[in-house]
Sequence to fold (197 residues):
Amino acid sequence: MKKALLLALFGMFLAIQPAWAEEMPTYGPNTPSPQPVLDTPHSLLQPVYRFWSSTHKAHFYTMSKNEKKHIEKVYSQNVWRYEGVACKAFREKIPNTAPVYRFWSNVNERHFYTMNKDEKDALVNGAYPEAKWCYEGIAWYAEEDPKRNNNPVYRFYSQANKVHFYTMSKDEKDALIKGVYQEAKWRYEGIAWYGRD
Fold:
């Protein structure tokens, strides 16, 4: 009797399920359960923000929205002016990416970014002691090799301003190589990493 009553109640429950329940798939011994939804590489892409300082004659790059907001709130436009998104990179390590390391020089008041682990280790171990480079950690993760959906980020150095510059713009790269900004005397150092649009 109890069993019959329970079956009847269960039958009524199935008959009055809400409409959304019909969209829910059922899984049984012959139907595998779905795999968990993981972040795809595309969802891990984040903008890398670019600032210019006419005061310091240097660019600054950050993936942190909080750092971007702080700079825009605290500093005037001539100290740090937001120029837009430099490229997109990954906030976490995924296959075929490597960390981009960030350094700060209190002496030169400049940041430096490198994907090269040997260069990072040399700075951590005191290379260029006159600049007193301080390791700040991993800025973001970027691709090391060219793919159909990424672009090279070019690296330049200005001895006059004691600063590196990074750009994904081929036009900007070509202008610097042609010597458009003579006063800074930019030297092309090659591809720093690969970024996304």
